[in-house]
Protein: Carbohydrate ABC transporter ATP-binding protein, CUT1 family
Amino acid sequence: MTIQNPSVSIKHLDLAFGAVKVLQNLNLEIADGEFLVLLGSSGCGKSTLLNVIAGLLEPTDGQIWIKGENVTWAEPSERGIGMVFQSYALYPQMTVEGNLTFGLKNAKVPKDEIARRVARAAEILQIEPLLKRKPGALSGGQRQRVAIGRALVRDVEVFLFDEPLSNLDAKLRADLRVELKRLHNNLKNTMIYVTHDQVEAMTLADRIAIMKGGKIMQLGTPAEIYGKPQNLYVADFIGSPSMTFFKGTLKGDVIAIPGHDLPLGNYDFKERPADGTPAIIGIRPEHVMTGDNLRSAPCTTEVTVDLVEPMGSDTLVYCEFGGETFRIRMDGQAQVTPGDRLTIGIDPAAASLFDTESEVRL
Structure:
């Protein structure tokens, strides 16, 4: 995907701490007004990349361009960015209004302009009743809104978020996630958001960059990342629970896994491998057919239920299949107990096939 006039452009970026390579030849272009999420497990380099974009860390090599200007060696204050950290980092002795105006006063912004920006941020974030309170009198969610407001009043083109919701409880995270999405829809600013939470990534992002070892493993829309993971790492990382993987061999129109031959049907191969090629097939729990859906299944089999996890809206069922612990997502009202025999259907056309050696999608 080529982006004309990207808002942020990262070119051949390297960062090393001694012999440890944290970012490796990283290239990324972010469109104007795009919400891009950097997703990965701890230590993958996502927060480091955000800090390099912000100017808080200096790269070993490569360039960073923001709004058409090379800012690789520019000070953070000269980059036209606003950053929201994981910790609220509010001044406890100041009111909310004081926290919002502090940076603007230091930058010698005129009083009437400060008032306009604070009023606008307070309205957007719904913190108008809180302006005279101090941070100690606020809840965690309210403090995070103030932290976002402090970035918002800078009136910049690019916002950087470093896991801003990770300190909040589950319900508050869900509520603020909606507010962040609404904020982006209203402002249309470029936003780069770091998280290890795939639900946040899938619900917020226009595109997701999944990182591992300082590299981007896949860059795409949430639908592309979920539906067509380009390698085994992404396939295993995305999904809760993740895919179940089976090692097998391609033979004509089937993939042979231990004890079963699964028809490939209309699987969309990039390039059809030769017969006898070892492959790995990954099947998501939600792509296993049960009940009335079995009518459209290209093949069915029986399994014995080992474990049941009721989760309200759905039920996760664990069983043994093809030598692996196989997970099946069923309706929340499904009446299933351990020991039951269950007929299931599998459609490999909805699955993902990977090369055994390179782990790249076939």
